[in-house]
């Protein structure tokens, strides 16, 4: 399969990445190779095989419903690029 | 002073406990070694000498504590792991000014055991890479030959341990990122069973694959550190609710391999392995036989599909895990962004390096509408088959053995233009993460052609780190010791 | 417009009344300062991990059990990936292919016709934070207090055919949530949110038409108006030969119209996949059986029982069971000896009026059910007249007084002693001879006058029935 720079651009948009034309071209070419390689899985017959999404074998860990603070707001906002001490600030969402 | 840094972790730990040396001396020795080697090595992204010396002084004032297994031992930590009030960059510009106010659980455990954290080590950005060349900050050199890579993504940790900058370093392993750099740098490196060590505080790359583990000089050292950082953590839902055996006790007194059956997978010992790698590993297997081990052939038939499976799963999970780096609450925010859309796109496009962007794009693609079944779901099915391969093989043997990498450390810059080539080199390490089983790499000699360290892997059944550590200890003691690295 | 049939499906998001958030131990308490109920986990900091709140699972399962759903023994959390400032991780942890509950129903009655509305699924998910847009500066302010608060999403089958059916469904659903005590059910405050998917199809056509999703509906009244508007909008388009576009539209209450969000929202590809940080939720039969046994009597069952047990009308039963506290009050009143029908009447008239005026819910009234029963019993026993009972009710309500004691204290007892009344009657007749003669002469309307005079003389406490009887005796 050949993946076009346009298709790459669409996916990049979903991932909030802005790639220039040169990068789109390069990525498209690389992705072609990589995806073609990934498609070799298609040759394997996996009928009836239950997908394994995680190696975890134990039961659902559950938490008791008790509220307990673990930090202060100042700590939460300490790394914020833009804040007024109360909120995280971003450009206006239209 | 340099005598101290030449010691193993267990040796220095004992001297500290007996007050033969003070914690401050151990730290000072490491700092001196770091100062002497860092210009060439560039293994460390952040060094906090003052804090380390202050911590050492506090420990010395209070005196050694019997229950603290790593009392006074200086260690380094891969920069993917959160250390409170220290920068945690994951080797990326997007976190260049991020300082967490919380410790990862494994760090809490190290501190509770009396260890002294010297700083954070270099890595491939967000653990994506096999050479540490993808770091946004520096390229770490291999202490054996500074023109060569230390491996990745835990290249900084591996180089630091090999260069005697510290007595142990924590790394992370998603597709081989502890084991391969350990092999390239001639150290021991262990990836525990998935769920053995808490992932809380580890910046996630491939959530169903990631594990934290130690890189050390010896198997005994690895056992000591693993005993401290392992254990059930209620803050990590994937953390296994299992008792942690005393790994050091499990290794004590082990002198031979009588009664041990080692399985050699056909797929790991065939084509595609450099002669010097095969030669060194085969010699190690012979040594194992002479120690009483029985060797049997096994098969992991789905090995040819492992790389494709791994990258689909890892990239898909990564594309989602890295969505939180958006310039809103922490990390890099593009100053020129005027709109929300620009804030997202410019921050992420400037903050992430090309390999990370590539993996995010591919990961997004394989999850997207129309492709999910063909890629992600299919990969998950193959993953079950790969895991089943191991479970079947372990019916015939106690540990599985094979080379860590098809080749020894390569020159810096050699593989950077061909991402697919780089991915394919993970062939021997990757399956283990898919299966969630424990594995380690141990040095088995220097390559006859390259003179670079060769590493060999031991895989174990789930939660049987003791078996592979014990095997590595006995075998390591029987093999000729490696010389000190020639490069620095 | 009778050419088209309206087809409506509804998605409800109900905020669960837990102490802590779904994946972390932050408080869910309302009304704290911005970002005060936030921790690294719910603010999506690097390296953090979720741990599931046991009570959320219980509440979600109970809602499924209460609506006749199959509670799946295995359900899986999935990541719904998209970017928005109020979504700290860049994905919402929700459930996709394997939700906790499926295939239930809610029964409704509209204009006397009963109908069953299907519930496709119920799943658990986390809420997002809040973005506050500033009119003044070019910025938005993000508060993550609400991020990670537990929600259940309840998706109905597209079984509704009118706005009235939608309201009936929503009311029934909300009543169950409130009866289970797992949700406040407050639409205005946002603990009960509803989006409607509306489409039209030519009458007789089997295939569904294209639907539009309507959001920003904040009251039952808005539900009616928004759907009515949307139906007309779609009908106009179809009449003009234009297609209905599949899109999300926001309801604007001030304009009473819906407007497309399309300019603001790109096509979303959520790229759902199972969340690798969480373990599939496994529920065994024993746990489900225990939860089933813990379910309270649900609104529908209670309504039917009220009709059966207390002989109430459907209407009265519905009013009294609308709120759990109201139903409990009524039953306590009946248990204390009040005639059910009378109690029902008093609750729907006098009590409701006083509650509305005081702007308090029935759970906060000082007039206990026993008190109300006491008052009703006094009337039944002829101790006081209904008229006086109504007069003193506000005082009883305000002070929470025992009616019997109050009546005694104020000397309001109805005079039912013939002897005592007889002298009053004779006194009035004696004082008004002209009227007596006129009455005997045929002006029977004067009966009211005499009764009035006697009432005045006895400060309204004369037993009216007895007064009438005595007057008849004496007037002949």
From TrEMBL, chain A:
InterPro entries: Asp/Glu-ADT_sf_sub_c (IPR036113), GatC (IPR003837). GO terms for biological process: glutaminyl-tRNAGln biosynthesis via transamidation; regulation of translational fidelity; translation. Keywords: ATP-binding, Ligase, Nucleotide-binding, Protein biosynthesis, Transferase. Transmembrane segments: none annotated. Signal peptide: none annotated. The keyword Oxidoreductase does not apply. Its EC number is 6.3.5.-. One of its GO terms (molecular function) is transferase activity. It holds the Pfam family GatC. It catalyses: L-glutamyl-tRNA(Gln) + L-glutamine + ATP + H2O = L-glutaminyl-tRNA(Gln) + L-glutamate + ADP + phosphate + H(+); L-aspartyl-tRNA(Asn) + L-glutamine + ATP + H2O = L-asparaginyl-tRNA(Asn) + L-glutamate + ADP + phosphate + 2 H(+). PANTHER family: GLUTAMYL-TRNA(GLN) AMIDOTRANSFERASE SUBUNIT C, MITOCHONDRIAL (PTHR15004:SF0). Allows the formation of correctly charged Asn-tRNA(Asn) or Gln-tRNA(Gln) through the transamidation of misacylated Asp-tRNA(Asn) or Glu-tRNA(Gln) in organisms which lack either or both of asparaginyl-tRNA or glutaminyl-tRNA synthetases. The reaction takes place in the presence of glutamine and ATP through an activated phospho-Asp-tRNA(Asn) or phospho-Glu-tRNA(Gln). Belongs to the GatC family. Heterotrimer of A, B and C subunits. This is Aspartyl/glutamyl-tRNA(Asn/Gln) amidotransferase subunit C. It comes from Solidesulfovibrio aerotolerans. The lineage of its organism: Bacteria, Pseudomonadati, Thermodesulfobacteriota, Desulfovibrionia, Desulfovibrionales.
From TrEMBL, chain B:
Transmembrane segments: none annotated. One of its GO terms (molecular function) is ATP binding. InterPro entries: Amidase, Amidase_CS, Amidase_dom, AS_sf, GatA. Gene3D superfamilies: Amidase signature (AS) domain. GO terms for biological process: translation. It holds the Pfam family Amidase. The active site is at residues 78, 153, 177. Residues 25-469 form the Amidase domain. It is an enzyme of class 6 (ligase). It catalyses: L-glutamyl-tRNA(Gln) + L-glutamine + ATP + H2O = L-glutaminyl-tRNA(Gln) + L-glutamate + ADP + phosphate + H(+). Its EC number is 6.3.5.7. NCBIfam families: gatA. Belongs to the amidase family. GatA subfamily. Heterotrimer of A, B and C subunits. Allows the formation of correctly charged Gln-tRNA(Gln) through the transamidation of misacylated Glu-tRNA(Gln) in organisms which lack glutaminyl-tRNA synthetase. The reaction takes place in the presence of glutamine and ATP through an activated gamma-phospho-Glu-tRNA(Gln). This is Glutamyl-tRNA(Gln) amidotransferase subunit A. It comes from Solidesulfovibrio aerotolerans. The lineage of its organism: Bacteria, Pseudomonadati, Thermodesulfobacteriota, Desulfovibrionia, Desulfovibrionales. The gene is gatA.
Automatic annotation (TrEMBL), chain C:
It catalyses: L-glutamyl-tRNA(Gln) + L-glutamine + ATP + H2O = L-glutaminyl-tRNA(Gln) + L-glutamate + ADP + phosphate + H(+); L-aspartyl-tRNA(Asn) + L-glutamine + ATP + H2O = L-asparaginyl-tRNA(Asn) + L-glutamate + ADP + phosphate + 2 H(+). Keywords: ATP-binding, Ligase, Nucleotide-binding, Protein biosynthesis, Transferase. It comes from the Bacteria. SMART domains: GatB_Yqey. One of its GO terms (biological process) is glutaminyl-tRNAGln biosynthesis via transamidation. The keyword ATP-binding applies. Its EC number is 6.3.5.-. InterPro entries: Asn/Gln-tRNA_amidoTrfase_suB/E, Asn/Gln-tRNA_Trfase_suB/E_cat, Asn/Gln_amidotransferase, Asn/Gln_tRNA_amidoTrase-B-like, GatB, GatB_C_1, GatB_Yqey_C_2, Gln-tRNA_amidoTrfase_suB_CS. The keyword ATP-binding applies. Allows the formation of correctly charged Asn-tRNA(Asn) or Gln-tRNA(Gln) through the transamidation of misacylated Asp-tRNA(Asn) or Glu-tRNA(Gln) in organisms which lack either or both of asparaginyl-tRNA or glutaminyl-tRNA synthetases. The reaction takes place in the presence of glutamine and ATP through an activated phospho-Asp-tRNA(Asn) or phospho-Glu-tRNA(Gln). Belongs to the GatB/GatE family. GatB subfamily. This is Aspartyl/glutamyl-tRNA(Asn/Gln) amidotransferase subunit B. It comes from Solidesulfovibrio aerotolerans.
